Task: structure prediction
Amino acid sequence: MSSIGDLCEKVVSGGTPLTSRPNYYLNGNIPWLKTKEINQCRIYGTENYITQLGLDNSSAKLVPANTVTVAMYGDGQTAGRVALTKVPLATNQACCNLIIDTKIADPDFVFYFLLGSYDELVARKTGSGQQNLNAQLIKAFEIPRPTLFDQKAIASVLTSLDNKIDLLNRHSKTLEDMAETLFRQWFVEEGQENWQEHKLSDFADHCKDNVAPAKNPGKMFHHFSLPAFDSGKRPVVEMGSAILSNKYKVKPWTILVSKLNPRFPRIWAIGETVDDDAICSTEFQVFIPKKASLYGYIYFLLRSDDAKDGLAMAASGTSGSHQRVRPEDISNIRTSLPSLNLAEQYSLLVMPSLKKIWANSDQIHTLEKLRDTLLPKLMSGEIRVEL
Result:
């Protein structure tokens, strides 16, 4: 065993250029990573970029590709999460950046070890109020130290699974992008002033079948939650006794739309394969098409820029991620059509893509389970790999 610090050339945090200085951000080309983007993943790009001037006039530091980055602070489940940078980038001060000495350690091996050690990292958080990690705790964290050859062999198995997962995710993203482009072309760019205006409520019913899981303490529920959506996971399986608040029933062929942060809404297409015990957070609103032939149209209508803009204008509450919309604001989303037939034609075209996305999701779930099962066995030496 070694400490994480023993395997590093350098351990650094980062910094945040003054947001009051536009020239530190405007037209920046240096990726700048925040902890909310660290999610047990590889980082190929970031939400924000800074300029060289911003880098030079702050405590932000440029770290090389293949730096292992650990979130030290963050709400909810953020602190303790890990990422592997695949491009040079800078980070904010809440990131602990482990620049690995590649003569003695493999960055992918360190990344996977820390990914599998999330619960143990979380257990070491300290402080009153919001508990956090710090660089000293992370540097002192112990890690197995097989030969560099064996490290690379272990990492190669896990990387091959993640590469397949990444390929499936990118395929699903391409299918979604193509369907969104087609929606924009048919219903926005080629739209006519004489088309009839409709509301979402003309096409879909808002369902509010309440469920009280706590009244069924021994029953297992498939819970479509906001954290599950945000992490790209399937619904979490939970015991009724652990779910204290009321939920909504999720039926086949429903679409879930979150009330929270409407500019970047969470929209979940459920499809036909859903368990009888499926429920969702009341932050999600459940909509079911009045005609099954409109399912694809309704889903991509909800994902359209016009729908996002309309919900953002209707939002109330504090700024940013704490804004919410009322269910009736979702029902009042506007759209224009020459006839329902065009919407049905669109659905017919995009439904094969949606079904392929669901199939990809099933395969991703299987591969993730395999990876998560293999990871501790490979790290402990219970399973050995030969290249």
Q: What stands out?
A: The mean pLDDT is 93. The chain has eleven helices and 22 strands. The chain has two domains: 2-129+137-145, 196-337.
